[in-house]
Amino acid sequence: MVRVLFVCLGNICRSPMAQAAFERRVAESGLESEVQVDSAGTGPWHVGEAPDPRAAEIAAERGYPITHQRGRQISAEDYEGFDYILAMDRENLANLRLECPSGLHHKLQLLMDYSDLPGYPEVPDPYHGGEEGFEIVADLIESAVRGLLSHIRQNDLQ
Ligand code: 4NP
């Protein structure tokens, strides 16, 4: 089993979208029994909340609904339990590095490391912007989860 955790700040916009977009790809490939997926936020503010309606609308339009997800904050056990811990932006990554036990830092990466779109090293925080920011977020996430699944198929599921 390969375990993948997507991490953003609030766990109500970007990482729920990444979780659902990746789960859809995993299901399309028939790999549900081999890849486990979850998401979390570095911050506590939206624990227990449903996703942001703007993120939910775009995810539904694109065929990977997120309304069933609920916000949660990353916990100490997550660093042990997941194999890939993928941050949306550099601030998320820096916060993960502060908490992650030193022997497990190899698990921490930026999600966009798996994208082949040039010029987008991170998935920008869409929370304080407009609708178009969420479309860009969805485009970036979809490109990166495609690359992520092909990486996992080649490296972990042989
Ligand atoms: P997310 O977006 O990290 O993609 O879930 C945000 C959600 C909430 C806040 C910031 C970003 N906030 O400041 O409450």
- Using only C-alpha atoms, the radius of gyration works out to 14 Å
Q: Estimate what percentage of residues fall within beta strands.
A: 5-15%
How would you classify the helix and strand content by structural class?
alpha/beta
Tally of DSSP β-strands: 4
Give the ligands present.
4-nitrophenyl phosphate
Biggest sheet features? 4 strands, parallel
What is the string of SSEs from the N terminus onward?
EHEHHEHEH
Unreliable sequence segments: none
The overall pLDDT, averaged over residues, is 97
* Residues in helices, as a percent range: 40-55%
Largest sheet: spatial strand order: 2-1-3-4
How many DSSP H or I helices?
A: 5
**Distance between the ends:** 12 Å
Globally, the shape reads globular
Short overview:
The chain has helices at 14-28, 53-61, 76-81, 90-99, 131-155, and strands spanning 2-8, 35-41, 84-87, 108-110. By secondary structure, it is an alpha/beta fold. α2 crosses α5.
Walkthrough of the structure:
The protein has about 160 residues and is α/β, with parallel strands linked by helices. It is globular. Strands 2-1-3-4 form a four-stranded parallel beta sheet. Helix 1 (about 15-30) packs across helix 5 (about 130-155) and helix 2 crosses helix 5 (about 130-155). It has five helices and four strands. Helices cover about 40% and strands about 15% of the residues. 4-nitrophenyl phosphate binds near residues 8, 9, 125 and 127. 4-nitrophenyl phosphate binds near residues 10, 11, 12, 125 and 127.
